[in-house]
């Protein structure tokens, strides 16, 4: 017998009409608030510069918030602190991220250096105040005399000097602020139910609230891991598990090297991640690789290992787990595994 659920109120009241729908011919698009008070809800951000958020801007902010909160929650759970975090998003998926225990500038530089061209026209979310120096880095780091343009920039605060640097003609750069995203405040996961439309029905499921914990008994380690390696593994997990599957994520020294998302084949995702890294000029020496589900066969690990990847974090759950794990360990890989029933990272399907 199917479980009966109480009716759920989907919306409370009409908030606004966005200036643009996903595609112009679909407009105008409407936005409705949901019940309850969430300090990190999009409606809790104040727009201090630029035009109204479009449908695409909102989807990018949603993706950025999911990634940001998972990074913060992962670091808080595993290391007791939340670093400076900068996340870059395009087409609802994180394309870059940087974390730093040193400074906001360091986090911004890492986020940009992942893929300096890709973030152009995208969304950037930070868990810190963006000041004039930060704004200069966002606009010019790895971009020479040219000025990088961004569609949305959000942080706990954006100073007037920074706004002047980042603003665009006709309000094309939307600048948002929310004091509750500052520091450890960014670790607030979204716990509201998720609603997705499928033709003729509404599907409901729990939100993405799993947080990886390296101390759990179901986490298996093959090899020795120092603290910097664990921090890279947590960053890779947070980014990869908030990206459309199949995903392979590469991280080194608090910087995402590549995030290959939404591939139908895990071997191709591995190849794409390496291609992205190579295209930007990143070496894979010292990177950690995260896979959001298990490797059913040895082909994807072989691609990564042949390229020089020596640390992999993956799920278990395949009937060939024993053979695939043995293959990776025999190739000299440091390996972390977790049963997919606890932590599979499928997202957005």
From TrEMBL:
InterPro entries registered for this protein in UniProt: AICAR_Tfase_dup_dom_sf, Cytidine_deaminase-like, PurH-like
Descriptive protein name: IMP cyclohydrolase
GO annotations of cellular component type: cytosol
Record-level GO BP terms: 'de novo' IMP biosynthetic process
Alphabetized Pfam families for the sequence: AICARFT_IMPCHas
Phylogenetic placement of the source organism: Bacteria, Candidatus Kaiseribacteriota
GO MF, one annotated term: IMP cyclohydrolase activity
Domain of life: Bacteria
């Amino acid at each position: 017998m199917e479980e009966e659920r109480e009716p759920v109120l989907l919306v409370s009241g009409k908030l606004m009409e966005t200036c643009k729908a996903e595609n112009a011919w679909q407009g105008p698009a409407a936005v409705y608030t949901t019940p309850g008070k969430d300090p990190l809800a999009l409606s809790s951000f104040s727009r201090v510069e630029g035009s109204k958020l479009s449908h695409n801007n909102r989807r990018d902010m949603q993706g950025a918030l999911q990634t940001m909160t998972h990074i913060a929650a992962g670091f808080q759970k595993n290391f007791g602190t939340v670093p400076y975090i900068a996340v870059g998003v395009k087409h609802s998926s994180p394309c870059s991220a940087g974390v730093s225990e040193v400074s906001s500038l360091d986090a911004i530089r890492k986020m940009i250096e992942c893929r300096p061209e890709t973030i152009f026209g995208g969304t950037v979310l930070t868990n810190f105040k963006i000041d004039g120096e930060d704004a200069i880095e966002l606009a010019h780091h790895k971009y020479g005399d040219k000025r990088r343009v961004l569609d949305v920039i959000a942080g706990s605060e954006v100073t007037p000097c920074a706004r002047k640097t980042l603003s665009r003609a006709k309000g094309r750069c939307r600048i948002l602020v929310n004091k509750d995203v500052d520091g450890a405040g960014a670790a607030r996961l979204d716990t509201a139910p998720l609603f997705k439309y499928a033709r003729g029905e509404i599907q409901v499921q729990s939100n993405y609230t799993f947080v990886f914990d390296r101390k759990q008994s179901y986490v298996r380690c093959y090899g020795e891991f120092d603290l910097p390696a664990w921090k890279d593994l947590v960053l890779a997990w947070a980014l990869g598990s908030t990206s459309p599957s199949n995903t392979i994520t590469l991280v080194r020294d608090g910087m995402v090297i590549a995030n290959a998302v939404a591939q139908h084949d895990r071997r191709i995702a591995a190849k794409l991640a390496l291609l992205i890294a190579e295209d930007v000029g990143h070496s894979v020496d010292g990177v950690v690789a995260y896979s959001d589900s298990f490797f059913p066969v040895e082909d994807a690990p072989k691609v990564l290992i042949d390229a020089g990847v020596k640390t992999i974090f993956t799920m278990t759950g395949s009937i060939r787990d024993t053979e695939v794990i043995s293959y990776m360990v025999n190739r000299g890989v440091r390996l972390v595994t977790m049963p997919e029933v606890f932590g599979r990272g499928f997202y957005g399907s």
